[in-house]
Please model this.
Amino acid sequence: MKIILAILVAFILSHAPWRLAVLGVETFAMTPSHTRVDTGNEKYWDVLRLQYRLGALGWTIEYAPNLQFNEQQAYGLTSFDGHIIVVDSDLSWNGRYSVLLHEGGHILAPYWANRGQAEAFAETVAALAAHDGLREHARYLSLYKEDFVIAVLLNWRDVYRAAALLSE
Model:
């Protein structure tokens, strides 16, 4: 399995755009641990623009404290049934922006992706659109290394399209 992953990573590095390739290297070098969100507030207007974009796609954005998924802390949740994205209201504006980009990545992920591939797709979209450095995104993606390779190998163009749509 490691040989196959190495071949896939080499393929991504040689064919994907450089930012995605750097994210791949960071992801495979990173040890999974708790992801830290940016505590700054410079992205206030970016959050408002992104909320508008997501609203135009038919999604409602809500904020609530102490979000949990499977009894673990969550920064954001996406309900496909209700077309609702919920973001932790305790996050800074920069944190909200990154989380909204991630949840927006979920709504644009391929329908056939399993949970790990959808997480990898969404976080890769957030990493490319946020322009806030790749390290924390890679830390999260390191939980889904194999799924990252599959999601990026099969969909790197769609990842870039989704990132562009959300950050226009």
In short: The radius of gyration is 15 Å. Residues 2-167 form one domain. DSSP finds seven helices and five strands in the chain. The chain has one domain: 2-167.
